[in-house]
Amino acid sequence: QDVIVNVDACYTQKHSSKGGRDPPRMHPNSFFIPEADVKAWKHYVDTIRPSKQQSGRPKKQIRTDDDVQEQDHIEDGLRVPKSVLDGCLASFTAADEARVKGSTRFFDVTANMTLLCRHDRPLFSVNVDTAGEGQHFVFALLSKLFENLACHVCVRFLYDIGCQLHRSCEKWGFLKPYSNRLTFAVSIFHAFRHQWPCQLVYHPRKCTGYGLSDGEGAERLWHSLSHLIAYSRVAGYYVRMYNLDSQFQFNSDEAMYKLGLWLRRKVILCTEKLKEVEESIRTCGVTEETLRREWDAQVKAQTKPLPRQHKNQGKSAVEEALRLRKSRDTAQDHVNGLRKRIIDISSEPWDIATAELELESAIQVLRKAQARVTKKENTLGVDEKHQLRSLMNSPFLMKKMNARALKIRIRERLRSRKFELDRLERSYRKQRSEQRINKLTQDSVKRRDPGISQLASRYNRLCEDMDTLIRRKKAPQNSVAPIKIDMEILFELDVNDDIWLDVGLGYDDDEQDGTVPPLWLSNDNVRLGIRAMTDRDRCLEEQARLLKERSALQIWFSEEWQVINAAIEQNLDADIKFQLKTRKDKLCHLLVVWERTLVGVPVALDLPEWGPTTDELAQYRAVFVLGGGVEMAEEGSYEYDVDFEADADGLLVEHLDSLRIHENYRELHDSES
């Protein structure tokens, strides 16, 4: 048995430190973990893993060629090389530097971090009192979860930087008692920040057991709490927590009535996606055995540590030398152009004067560029100089080097664009100042789009040139042409997009020595089939999980019904019996809502009966209101939505659109284009 949970922090749910704290007032069903438990975890983490200030600044070490060759490796317990994890960490660090998360000078609570189940219902929450997301907050939430789970239940955990949390757990032994019951993945809408080998291992669409869960339930929770942002900042410390607890409780109660609708919507989406990917598998024309073998080979090849890294660094030095040569040639052309303007008798006097003024600085730039080229080429070894001459004499290798550099640049530009769109994709905060910031971000992103498109067009032209050289037998044997970028999906950065794959561009491709490249690298149908196969695996997992959740729904209700009836029969206290009957009425209302919304949801055999008799349900089935709860009309009667069946599909679509966060960005992109 396993459960899927995700965690995220909202840095708009702050609390001002001005005025101190009000008298304690705790909610009877509080979701917040006690402050003492969080501080205990912080102390434990700081003791096991000293901070940089405590450990002191590390001394720089001189690395030899052997050190460079051995420095990249896979750490114990992980499947991704150290260099890839370092790249993911740098990517998130760079993104967070541009975002002011919270000031501890003005706020004693800088954020709210909440752990949710895959049905978007809050489980536990903590107050963040640091400027960033300390890992001890996540450890406190996960440990509290495990304390409330049976010892045989496994947890599949989704987090924006799940790879880094996994690394810390393996390196420092955090959550060690639960390590054999805990797996990590990254949330889908943050996967673009991670390196491609990291996505192969930690992306939920590539990980076994995660189904179609996206790990972004917290964003929908922050939307429901957006109306409390302004008030929570100035309210008392404990009043704020009480209000958040009340909202959490309300969201959980409301979600109970929507579980049937949630299951039905998930079943529809899963069924449609499964049909689509099965058709893709059929059309690719490759057996499933071959696809799985090639997928395993791809993961193994693309997640291995960098081999002979000193040679790759040599190639990078050669590429740098070529780039410096291009810069020098550009500076030389500029100087030549200025000199022609000066000696041209048809030039205007003011134009000649301007050219003379620019010529001196242009010559200085040229001299510096020539000095950099000379210095760089003098540092090249014998093999690197030979590579430089080969590149200069090979049009194919020259275009390949240019395409490799261009694709890296496109990826970085797209990542930067997504960082800016991060605020728009999560724009659930409706304050006027936030709307102005969103407008400025939108304008900034819009200005960058043409530049990215031009880079992609240049890259596609290089791909066409390389394909032409291969067909004309002017390229090395068994060379593979790079995949062109699809301009229609350029800005999506989906996990299956070709922008991540350096087919025909990798360093290893230069060293094949005439061997035939693997199918996952060279065959379009195999790549298409692998994507469809992994998606189908997730759909089948989702189907099995939905069936289990549908069964759990009925088993839970049946047990709850038996318990409530037994309690009513055995209890003679009038006040307690009244509360128990009220609970029984709510269960009946809940079942009436579920039986209408669960139409079409597959159900397992041999399940216990729901519990209520036909007569007990008759008085509730005739009149109810669907939409997150049950409302009583006058004199105990209920209103029945007679148009519900006709509008069921419309309700599903409307509910789906309201929950899919990335629709905001898509609508924005469509309106701009």
Automatic annotation (TrEMBL):
InterPro entries, A to Z: KDZ
Keywords: Coiled coil
Top-rank taxon: Eukaryota
Stretches for region Disordered: 49-72
Residues in coiled coil: 352-379
Ranges of Basic and acidic residues composition bias in the record: 62-72
Signal peptide positions (record): none
PANTHER family per the UniProt record, alphabetical: CXC1-LIKE CYSTEINE CLUSTER ASSOCIATED WITH KDZ TRANSPOSASES DOMAIN-CONTAINING PROTEIN, CXC2 DOMAIN-CONTAINING PROTEIN
Name of the protein this chain belongs to: CxC1-like cysteine cluster associated with KDZ transposases domain-containing protein
